[in-house]
Amino acid sequence: MGPWDIMSQHFVEKGKPPQGISSFTKIRLGWIKKQQVQFVKPGETSIAFLSPLSKGGDLLVVKILVDESSQSHYLIENRQPIGFDRMLPDSGILILEVHPKYEDGTGVVKVKKPITSPSFDQATYKLEVSNRNIFVDKQNNISIIPLWKEKENLGVLVTTPDRSKTATNAALAILKLIDQNSENENVISESIEAFKNKDFEKSYDIAVGKWGR
Predict the structure, then answer these.
(1) What is the pLDDT of residue 210?
(2) Of 26, 157, 165, 183, whose Cβ has the fewest other Cβ atoms within 10 Å?
């Protein structure tokens, strides 16, 4: 996990405070409760807005169970430079691949960084960064897309690869409206509402002005 968990790498920068720990370690320690986890199955479409992991909150993790027999799964978390995580090299949506039945030291948990990222220092996914705004696992019918922020909470969409392009386009259109501080709050609200209802085509059309104007 590199710098994303003190149990993997003991500091980000020598002489400065250590970073925090991942959702994987916090779950093992009992620091994250079941009600703070949103469970999703491969093939489902689900939206969550995650509190910063180090700060805590009502919803901290999305868990996608990939294989029931091995209990292999993905954990999705929102890492921000807050509290014990203030020394992190980056921020955004972090995806962990977990294989609980592996022996310790043989890759029980791995950070699934974007394939374009040169190192673990750029391991997070961000909607606004074009080569880091989607993770796809075609074998398990999973796509993970970072979304916009709502206050401190950062959104993440779990869907299927066949829906990912439409969903990403809609999310980017919403982010553009938010960044432009659009005076038409109704358009933003309607587009977000359609997105959260999983109607990504309608959400995109509203955001680009084909609906609700």
Answers:
(1) 62
(2) 183
135, exposed or middle or buried, with CB in 10 Å at 0-12, 13-18, 19+?
buried
Distance between CA atoms of residues 208 and 152, nearest Å: 26
Cα(58)–Cα(26) distance, rounded to whole angstroms? 15
Tens of pLDDT along 154-172?
Answer: 999 999 999 999 999 999 9
- Counting every residue written for the chain, the total comes to 213
Q: What is the pLDDT of residue 46?
A: 98
Per the prediction, the chain carries an average pLDDT of 90
Angle at 63 between CA 21 and CA 42, to 5 degrees: 145
Q: Which residues are bridge partners to 77 per DSSP?
A: 61, 94
Contact present, 189 and 170 (Cβ < 8 Å): no
Cβ atoms of 99 and 66 closer than 8 Å: no
Distances (CA, A) of 35 to 31, 39, 63: 12, 10, 12
pLDDT exceeds cutoff 50 at 23: yes
Contacts of the segment 132-140: beta carbons below 8 A, 24+ positions apart: 132/92, 133/168, 133/172, 134/164, 134/168, 135/95, 136/161, 136/164, 137/66, 137/74, 140/42, 140/66
pLDDT digits 0-9 by tens, 104-134:
766 789 999 998 877 788 899 999 999 999 9
Contact 66, 44 (CB under 8 A): no
